[in-house]
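Board notes (copied after class):
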Amino acid sequence: MIIFIIILSLLLENIMSNLIPMGTFFNPLFSIVALVIIYPYFNNDDLRFIKFCAVIGLIYDIIFTNTLFLNMIVFIVVGLTIKLINIILSNNFINVMVISFISIVIYLILTYLILVIIGYKTFDFNYLFSTISKSLLSNIIYSFVIYIITDKISKKHKILKID
């Protein structure tokens, strides 16, 4: 189930990024949403989840960006955030959308800060807020749809996940 969700998310993100022009209200970050969805399937094996986040971040770097290891580090931080938020919130579709929202915002802010600090790119805060607002719509919809699908599959096939 975990590998299927990640592969699906990476494929959809690749397709969407090629079909939809940049700067629209559909800026896909489906791999971040996938981390939120798959966390309960790790059944409190947090170290394995963080390692998985690092691998997905590295794959994301190789496929989508020219910044090797940047997304690996950011995905680890996002994974730790997901872990901490899941301690507080239960696993239901509203909380998954909230956690997805928080994870996307953290991912974009961290990436923005790192790229500005190292001088790779120069952005202003308006660009950051614009990117955040444009990223949320499609990603929240994706988190809702993928949660409903994975929840039904988990219940049907009795796949264990923490609540």
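Comment from the instructor: The helical segments are 2-19, 30-38, 46-64, 70-88, 93-117, 125-157. The mean pLDDT is 89.
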